[in-house]
């Protein structure tokens, strides 16, 4: 059994080790926060401002404080997230800025790190083809090719068709925005497979989220079954994850319609995204 001085030395040693361990865990986080503040303080390039003026009308509708905040987030996003051109596409600053601006809309007014698991953005010069295997009613597997404009993978990749990125930014009031859709999936996938319930922080918020989203999802499916069209596209009815992504597109681009036709859904998304696009439009 150690003597009292030995026990005291052991205790002090353990405390010192714990302090070093805590400092080691804290240091990368503190350094990353310091680095991001430095990046966000840089001047926003004039060429990038020109891209947003020409390609993203919604930028000019934002209040001045949100415009400034968005520019800072774009700077950090582009400093951290690599872009890869596919099928011969050469990625330009215009492409990077336009994707980053639309993606960072989803993070305004929200503290903390977003898209932490995002490792790279893959850009295609057009819609691309993927091979899928599906089982028919008898269980027999069939292969088919499917054209896609974008995807979000839980492994940390977002895949986008550049023409669809352009089209989504060009019309800020049609409720159709590929970047918002796929990056909403990234938020949903922050802690694993997309379920339609992104991380909300306080566990008490999940009950209300589930009630509102579940009710709206079921109502959409019922309307479609009766042949009734609505504000949300039929694709939103395929699964809860797609419902959240499609509703996010409409929230940012057609907020008046969403607030009028689905006030509970608008309110839940406004609480989650911490913005009120009604005032922008």
Please write out the topology.
Blueprint: H1 4-40, H2 46-55, H3 57-61, H4 64-80, E1 83-85, H5 93-104, E2 120-124, E3 128-135, E4 141-148, E5 150-153, E6 157-161, H6 162-170, H7 178-188, H8 205-225, H9 240-253, H10 255-261, H11 263-273
Compose a concise summary of this entry.
This protein is of the alpha/beta class. The chain has eleven helices and six strands. The chain has helices at residues 4-40, 46-55, 57-61, 64-80, 93-104, 162-170, 178-188, 205-225, 240-253, 255-261, 263-273; strands at residues 83-85, 120-124, 128-135, 141-148, 150-153, 157-161.
Please provide a written account of the structure:
- The chain contains eleven helices and six strands.
- The chain has 281 residues and is α/β, with parallel strands linked by helices.
- It has helices spanning 4-40, 46-55, 57-61, 64-80, 93-104, 162-170, 178-188, 205-225, 240-253, 255-261, 263-273; strands at 83-85, 120-124, 128-135, 141-148, 150-153, 157-161.
- The strands form two sheets. The chain has a four-stranded mixed beta sheet with strand order 1-2-6-5. A two-stranded antiparallel ribbon has the order 3-4.
- Helix 10 (255-261) crosses helix 11 (263-273).
- The mean pLDDT is 90.
- It is globular, with a radius of gyration of 23 Å.
